[in-house]
Amino acid sequence: MTGSHRQRRLSAAGFAGKALVSAVSALVLISMLVVCAVCLPWPAAVDDPGNTAASSFDVSTERIEQYCPGHMSLADSGSYGDSEFQASAGNITSASRYAALGSVYMASVEGMSDADDAEAQRLSRGDDGDDIAVLSGTVDDGPSLFTTRLTASEDGTGAVGGVASWATDGDLRGLAASACVVPTLSQSFMLPSTGTGTTQELVVSNPSDRATAVTLRVWGTTDDAAMSLTTGNTLTVAAHGESSIDLGAAATGQDGLYVTVDSDETPVAAVVRMVRMDGLDAKGIDYIPPLAEESSDHAVMPSLREGDDVRVTVHAEESAQVTVSWLTGQGTSVADTGEVNPDQVTAFDLGEAPEHTLGVVVESSAAVDTAAYAQRNGDGAQSDFTVVLPGVAETSSAVAVPSGTRGELTLVNGSETQTTVNVQAYSGDGRPVGERDVDLEAGAATSIAVADMDEDAAIVTVEDPSRTVVWGVRLSQPDVDDAHLAGLANLRSTALTPIRETVLAQPNRMVVR
Amino acid sequence: MPRHARAVDHTVAAVITVEEDLRFFGDTVQAVLGQSVLPGTLVIADCTGLTGQPVHSEVPLSDGDGTRVLEIQIVRAAGARSFFDAVMRGMKYARPERSISALWILHDDSRPAETCLEALVEARRNTPTASLLGAKQLDWSGENLHNVGSYAGRHRLETLVVDGEPDQEQYDGRQDVFAVSLAGALVPLATVQSTGGADPWFGSFAEGDDLCRRICLGGGRVVVVPSAEVAHRRARFEGIRTRDGEPVAQDDSCDATMGVLESRQRYYYTDIRTPWWPFLWIWRLLRSFAAAVVRLSRKQPYAALCELALPWRALCTVSSAVRARRRVARQGKVPLSHLTVLTASRRQIAQWHDRSQAFNDQRDTTVLNPLAREHLLRRSVCRWTIVLLAALASCAVVVGVHWDVLRAAFGGASVVSDIWPPTDATFPQLVEAATSSWAFGVGTGVPAPPTPWLLVLMVVSLCTAGHVAAATVLLLFAAAPLSVLSFWALAGVFTRSDAVRVVGSLLWFALGLAMGLYASANLPMLTVMVFLPAAFAFAFRAVGMYRTEDPVKPHGSVQSAAISALCFVPVVAAEPQLLLPLVVAFLTFVVFVRRHRITLLLIPMPAALVLAPTLVNVVRRFGDGAWRQLFGDITMPDTATGGAPASLTLMGVLTRAFGLHGQQHDWLSVAVLCVCLVVAILAVASLALPFALRASRMMWVIVVAGALTALLAVRVSVDAGDGGAYAGTALPGTVMCLLGLMSCVCMVAGMAVRRFEPLREHAARRIQARLAVAGRAILAIVLAAGVCIWSGYGLTRHDAERLSASGTGLPMVAVDYLEQDPAHRILAVGARSGNHVEYAVMRTGAGDLIDNSVAQRAQRVSGVHDESDDLLASATARLMANADSQAIADIASLGFGGIYVTARNAGSEEASERLAANITASDGVQSVVSNAEGTYFRFTLIDPLHQGIDTTHQREIQSGVWRTAWLWCMGIVIVLYCVVAWPRMHRYDWEES
After folding, report:
1. Which residues of A are less than 8 Å from B902 in CB distance?
2. The pLDDT of residue A6 is above 70
3. Looking at the predicted structure, is the pLDDT value of residue B468 above 90?
4. Closest CA to A498 of A180, A155, A160, A63
5. What is the model's pLDDT at position B642?
6. Helix runs in A356-469, H state only
7. Terminus of chain A with fewer CB atoms < 10 Å: N or C?
């Protein structure tokens, strides 16, 4: 082979090699970019140590802000169709009562809607040293904001409010009542069945001057995952504004709902206004306030009575064995047992409450959220219902019974030991009108009509040093009863203990611009 | 000359030393065998060690007389330390004839002229007293001079011949000189015996000088014979042969400076009496620094290193030097002052310097024909006009959109956006923050490495006479034209098409707009946009891989390497995460470039030094999550730019980088991503271009590395946010990826060099050329559409993070208080809502940007807390809820002098009022100023004279030895790089861009 031949072959080989290396390197580089664009390797390899910039501080506050919902109304007030078949609010009437107890500097109530120009109504206080500051009125003009400023944060000091709403005519026949609620960043609700004709209007109020976005998560009875609502899972609430969403329509066909409400920026107050109709028949109204912060494995729901048609809904984060019992003056009797799947709402239909029933106890192997739904029938096809939430035992707590309603206390000793509580009643103008010590055996319950304490009794406080007694007030309304309509509602006790507030503090360079 | 006519001189033996490199040996042997007077013996001294036993052969010279033979001996000279050593070792193995009285010693690369030996022998006969006879040294072509003997200068030798000047026999009058080159010299054996031969310790470069010095000082004569010519390739001296004798190609020639300088130093020391040496050494040590700087300014970094190393190498060889000096002293009988004829005078040396300078200037200038120069001038006027117009246009866009900010800036305001806090810092405060490992803005301060970008701001502040706020404005508005120029320079490396270059650089500017960098005052990213393309452009120029105008040839440049290194400094200081892809890019470049690899090694050092505190902290506190600070920059993470850490595909990264996630996907958003896609497709085409095989692959490695960095950065959390962590910014990686892609698009435009045609023939343009022009026009139109889409999107969609000028900041009385003492602090608080309060530790009137520590944010997200900061958080939270005198006392106990409640910028006015009311109701405060902006309270618990935070730890760290060492190292290295990067004031250094 000659030299030039060899050289030519070598250069040909060199060219081929170069072309091969070029092609391979180009392919490798392009495929790497394509892989970057399309593939997602190790999707879990994300560095998130979970620390937030804001430090959270639990500080005691001397300022209590409470939100008291407005009177019951129809979620859909549009008028269409024949006038006979139009929904109507009828003669809806409301009443409210506010009381500030203990070391109170000042307490006032103002309407939510016109926070800027409305005159705030001050709670007035008698001259006697034992008197408390009180105010009663209505919430016909919409929800109100009840602000109390304390001089000291201690047991026995606090504020309590209650609203009631009733009608004997129209589609809202029945009685509804709720204690005022404290706005928080996150809260949860336990709601009864969302069958046909049910309206569950979640009203989210933002008492602050800063708009916020609220995220809803809803669990139902049919599935063990959070549902996506047909109306979207977020809600924006303007400053000093309200937004509402009908959960009955958004998550229809469930036997019960568990709902969490989380606000991004500012604390919000939320209450569900529930109205049931069956065709043209009114089936009752009620307010459903949020659940207490902590779930428990021993939930006591007072304020149920013989003849109530009771259904209990339970939600747990882990699977639990649940026993539901009737609570009577003599003790408990098992009504139903069952298994609760995690992240799924389970309903227990207990049927009609037996004789001497004062409440329902839910015992479970794990912490659960629960609520009892009680229904009674009235004349015609009318019925009314109330949703009773588990009570929380506190050293000092109170209930304000709205004017025009009658209340009946139910006191339940949830512990294994005998205990004594002191029940004190105040009149509608703040005078102490009656006091009684009540002995309760272990696991026993008793009921006292508020009127039995005194004719004028309107505000009831319970001192329970052992923190074992759960109590509530079941309401009735004379006008409704006189019309032979079913009318039932209940009020939870509100704690009169030092208020702790969560404040976030966060460094930010942009504070001074 | 016919063979039979030649004489053979049996008194002379020629000795040729030879090594592995045989490129010149053949010519040399041929020339020796072709001499008019042949040596009786030819000894080949083989230094390679491959010759074991000596080989003897006799070549009869066929002129009829049998007695005339040329004896050739190949002998072993392995282990020789110098040329003369090799000769002596060779002669030990050789069998010299008895008649031999002189050696004619030759390098393998010194080719004697035909009459060389004849002239030498004749000169020896005529001057019998000569101890050494040297030849005239010419270059390999035999036309230009190296030297014709040397004269004694001030402890060195002066040839007084300009190296490279044509030989016109102008020095042929020389006879007695102080020294001659040993290559081609005739050494009488008597001289070897009397002097002991050359001292191999001096090495090949100086042993001859030392030998000649001993001969002259010992009363002998050294004679140069100008008629004896030797063409000397000086292979080792010119770097085409390694120290071990291996051949090196001309293009890859190594640098022999070290050897030359060291042999010169050895000669220098041994020329002076030993007792003087210590003083001399100190003088030489000081001189070495100056010499190094001079070498750097001549763009000779290796020579500068050699200069610095010289004094220390001298220390290592003291004993040998003493021995050599003794030998000189022993053999010296005549003082140099008596040898005036052999000494070069000052005037002669000065004259020689002038002539050398003139000769160098003349030689290094490429002589261009005037038409070519006219062509180049026209081209440069054309392209500079276009690019300056483009830069002006980009500047006008930014100024026009943010005119109100610019106007306010002249009133002393600072720029503010959602991610950019304002600044009211003074220059000394900036310098302190940029150079101390201390985060001032957290509680009473915590140790944390400084944010590197502050060094960039510091340098820019020098341009604004120390006004830091003005420097931020300058950076913002100058970034637009500078980024255009920067990418234009990079595009010029790949194509000379003016249209593609200018449209490409406008696309680069539009990319900044589309990413909202101007609207959000993202100055670190703008720094990257300005310096990253320039850094790559100069890196390509450093290794000579660039296109340029027609008659000019690309060449490597140390100066470009230094500029590139300096350009990478602001890039990594702004976005330290770019260090990762840049390391990959650097390694790729080292693999891919054809030559000047060593030059590339210059590039990473300054960037590494500037980042040193950060990198050291990352290594030392790796377990504490300090590595997260690499992925952050000085901007405040924000949901708009950062978002939560997530694993994303490149699509997700692009969506985040362009801020598309919050928007409805309308046609403009889709078009923005389509531009990226088109650019990527064009870049794929560049991989197939045969003329850009290496460059396209290098840029593609940058594309992939940038993309991977962006994918990595969005998974890392760099700061704690409201509801979780904030991810590192995806912008640097994305920008780097797009930079690579856009460079490849420029390659697709082809070289587009406008040929210099002295005689233009319009009709002769070929179809192919026309097609290329049309293709480039289409490419430019496509890119222009991209410019419209990106800038349209940027101008219309980045309103959320709208730029504004800063407000009034703290009240005057508070600023006065802060200025009294650097230890004074004020706590600024603002209520975001009724249960969410924000606070900032203030030491300046507004902001402050300089206290925004990346490292400290990384600590926070990693869960490292500072006690004083926690106390401040708790106290502000308590004040939000209630009037709390204890909270006030807690804040005051840290040394704070007051508290400022801002009303205007807070989220909730009601909550702010409540906060102010709570503070008013607390003990120990006094309201000083209250207006619509906010309320300032003074603490009355501690006397204002004794207020101030504890700065003991801070001062300890600031006076630490590490900080001093870092600052000195960084300062010196940056200055040295600036010296190398500074353009030389000679016309021939002017380079085409």
Report:
1. 511-512
2. no
3. yes
4. A155
5. 64
6. 450-453
7. N
> Whole-prediction pTM value?
0.83
Backbone CA torsion sign across B348, B349, B351, B352: positive
Q: Is the pLDDT of residue A440 over 70?
A: yes
CB B208 within 8 A of CB B84: yes
Using the 8-state DSSP alphabet, how is residue B224 labeled?
E
Residue identified by tokens 């937030």 is A52
Q: A residues 229-268 near B, CB within 8 Å?
A: 264-267
Per CB-CB distance under 8 Å, the chain B contacts of A18 are 693
- Please judge whether A30 and B870 are an interchain contact, meaning their C-beta atoms are less than 8 angstroms apart: no
- DSSP β-bridge partners for residue B833: B836
**Peptide linkage before B848 cis (omega within 30 of 0):** yes
| pLDDT, tens digit (0-9, with 9 covering 90-100), for B227-282 | 999 999 999 888 888 888 888 888 777 888 899 999 999 999 999 999 999 999 99
Instruction: Specify burial of residue B111 (Cβ count, 10 A radius: 0-12, 13-18, 19+).
Output: buried
Other beta carbons within 10 angstroms of residue A318's beta carbon come to 12
DSSP, collapsed to helix, strand or coil, labels residue B807 as coil
Partners of residue B715 on adjacent β-strands: none
Pairing status of strand B836-842 against strand A500-507 = parallel
Task: Give the chain A residue nearest B691 (alpha carbons).
Answer: A22
Dist CA B45 CA B29 (whole Å): 12
The enclosing H or E element of B430 equals: helix B427-435
Q: What is the rounded CA–CA span in Å between residue A164 and residue A402? A: 6
Q: Check if the beta carbon of residue B19 is closer than 8 Å to that of residue B108.
A: yes
CB contact under 8 A, B649 and A40: yes
What's the ipTM? 0.81
Closest Cβ opposite residue A267 in set B684, B711, B835: B835
Residue B893 corresponds to which tokens in the numbers above? 């106990």
Give the separation between CA B531 and CA B536, rounded to whole angstroms: 9
DSSP E strands, A32-157: 55-60, 63-68, 93-101, 104-111, 121-122, 124-125, 133-137, 144-150
> Quick one: tokens of B639?
């949901």
E-strand ranges in B612-666 read none
B680, B807, B834: residue with CB nearest A513: B807
Residue pair A427/A401 in contact (Cβ under 8 Å)? The answer is: no
Helix, strand, coil % (nearest 5) of chain B? 55, 15, 30
Residue B501 backbone dihedrals phi, psi, to 5 degrees:
-60, -50
What DSSP assignment string belongs to B547-582?
---TTS-----HHHHHHHHHHHHHHHHH-GGGHHHH
Name the maximum alpha-carbon separation found in chain B.
Answer: 130
Phi then psi for residue A409, to 5 deg, are -75, 145
Specify which residues A387 forms β-bridges with: A373
pLDDT of residue A114: 58
- H/E/C letters for each residue in B171-222? CCCCCEECECCCCCEEEEHHHHHHHCCCCHHHHHHHHHHHHHHHHHHCCCEE
Question: In chain A, whose CA is at the least distance from the CA of B853?
Answer: A509
Q: Which tens digit of pLDDT belongs to each residue from A345-366?
A: 999 999 999 989 999 999 999 9
B815-835 pLDDT tens trace: 999 999 999 999 999 998 888
Size of interface A-B (CB pairs under 8 A): 222
Report the C-alpha gap between B614 and A215 in whole angstroms.
Answer: 40
Write out the two tokens for B935: 């309320």
Return the DSSP state at A357: E
Please state, in angstroms and rounded to a whole number, the distance separating the CA atoms of residues B635 and B420: 6
In angstroms, the separation between the Cα of residue A28 and the nearest Cα of chain B is: 10
- Report which of A387, A164, A174 is spatially closest to residue A281, judged by C-alpha positions: A174
Q: pLDDT exceeding 70 applies to what percent of chain B?
A: 95
Do residues B847 and B423 make contact, with C-beta atoms less than 8 angstroms apart? yes
Measured distance CA(B202)–CA(B77) in Å, rounded: 18
